[in-house]
UniProtKB/TrEMBL annotation:
Name of the protein in its database record: Mitochondrial tRNA-specific 2-thiouridylase 1
SUPFAM superfamilies: Adenine nucleotide alpha hydrolases-like (SSF52402)
Top EC group: transferase
Residues annotated as domain tRNA-specific 2-thiouridylase MnmA-like C-terminal: 302-383
Catalysis performed (reactions): 5-taurinomethyluridine(34) in tRNA + S-sulfanyl-L-cysteinyl-[protein] + AH2 + ATP = 5-taurinomethyl-2-thiouridine(34) in tRNA + L-cysteinyl-[protein] + A + AMP + diphosphate + H(+)
Any single Gene Ontology cellular-component annotation: mitochondrion
Length: 415
């Protein structure tokens, strides 16, 4: 009889984590289910379903006859995710709380709780993703402390765990895992790696998990849920009224309650205007939100961005990038956007320039640029600078030619 491995499974009360726990038990592991509470609904005027989610997770654990724990990271979530989210909005950026929540809460605090407090051999989550390791390799890992230098020594970890897209490409969640640490990834298993969502639902139905099957997919801000965003954010940030300004002629089109309630590319609902206008830029010093009259306006398209220090999951940085200072791969900054071919250039401070093969709509500061090489998710960096828009470049070309700059003559970008 071999050693019975202890795996702690993060239980959300949803179908994916429930089936993950079931599959781990079927593999013969000693499984403990843990529900994380990360948002205090007592402070909130909105509706929060964490009590129901916790009850649903407990019910699954009872059906599987495995231990159940509940842990609270309300303070940690507030200080390490939510307060940072508010600061980013105040700077005019649009943050991604789901990526930061995985980095700071699930794959840091929860991971440490699973390994150090509960003494688990590994942690498991219901993400649709896979790694380069077999389960037995995961159980044999030992903790590796974080590097003290800018980059990890590339020989410090002989066989780094690599993060790959899951079998279900539509549900693939490597995008949201692109900031997690190597030490956490090396001791994490993803039971749904080779499964599709439809097959997971089939397993749940056969296991009589009806109470989680009928639940809607979770949407909205990580752990906070689906809200009216403008109303929600204005509970935490003072209104900062300003003008909607046309990018083409500088005309004031209307007023707004705060630039932080808008992200680039979204429709700007301007009172009194029947036609749709779209947010193309923001000036937080004046409070102006610049808008354009079409969803594919050239002012929404760029092909170059710069990130902050890039987080490389396996190799830091990849050998190919070190060798030639430039690397070809694929890029996305939204979960389900098609992967776009790009060229990456490494800067001395660990940040990168990313140049896309064609202009991309609504590249947004504060979002994460996630890079892929084939099936592998290489990591991500926060977008901190944007290159010029197609609209700006065309105005510049027109000036060089001495031609009058007529916005209506600017070519439509490749979408």
């Amino acid at each position: 009889m071999g050693i019975v491995r202890h795996v702690v499974c993060a239980m959300s009360g949803g179908v994916d984590s429930s089936v993950s726990a079931l599959l781990l038990k079927r593999r013969g592991y000693h499984v403990t289910g843990v529900f994380m509470r990360n948002w205090d609904s007592l402070d909130e005027r909105g509706v929060c379903n964490w009590e129901q989610d916790c009850e649903d997770a407990y019910r699954v654990c009872r059906m599987l006859d495995i231990p159940f724990h509940q842990v609270s990271y309300v303070k940690e979530y507030w200080h390490e995710v939510f307060s940072n989210l508010l600061k980013e909005y105040q700077k005019g950026r649009t943050p991604n709380p789901d990526i930061m929540c995985n980095k700071h809460i699930k794959f840091k605090h929860f991971f440490q709780y699973a390994i150090n407090t509960l003494g688990a051999d590994a942690m498991a989550t219901g993400h649709y993703a896979r790694t380069s390791q077999e389960d037995e390799e995961v159980f044999e890992q030992r903790h590796v402390s974080s590097p003290k230098t800018l980059f990890r020594d590339r020989f410090e970890i002989r066989n780094p765990a690599r993060l790959y897209q899951g079998a279900d490409r539509l549900k693939d969640q490597t995008f949201f895992l692109s900031q997690i640490s190597q030490s956490a990834l090396r001791r994490t298993v993803f039971p749904l790696a080779g499964l599709t969502k439809d097959f997971v639902k089939k397993i749940a139905a056969e296991a009589q998990f009806q109470h989680v099957l009928k639940k809607k997919e979770s949407m909205g801000i990580c752990f906070i849920g689906e809200r009216n965003f403008e109303d929600f954010i204005l509970e935490y940030l003072e209104p900062q009224p300003g003008n909607f300004v046309s990018i083409e002629d500088g005309k004031i089109m209307g007023q707004h309650k705060g630039w932080f309630t808008f992200t680039l590319g979204q429709r700007a609902r301007i009172g009194g205007l029947r036609d749709a206008w779209f947010v193309v830029d923001k000036d937080i010093t004046t409070g102006d939100v610049f808008v354009a009259p079409t969803t594919n306006h050239p002012a929404l398209f760029r092909d170059t961005i710069r990130t902050d220090r890039f987080h490389w999951i396996a190799e830091e940085p990849p050998a190919e990038l070190v060798r030639s200072s430039m690397m070809e791969c694929h890029f996305r900054f939204l979960h389900q956007m098609p992967l776009t071919p790009c060229t990456v250039t490494l800067n001395a401070d660990g940040s990168v320039w990313i140049t896309m093969i064609q202009p991309v709509r609504a590249l947004t500061p504060g979002q994460f640029a996630v890079l892929y090489k084939g099936d592998e998710c290489l990591g991500s960096g926060k977008i901190v600078r944007l290159g010029p828009t197609e609209y700006t470049l065309q105005l510049g070309r027109d000036r060089l030619r001495g031609a009058p700059s007529d916005p209506d003559c600017t070519p439509e970008p490749v979408s």
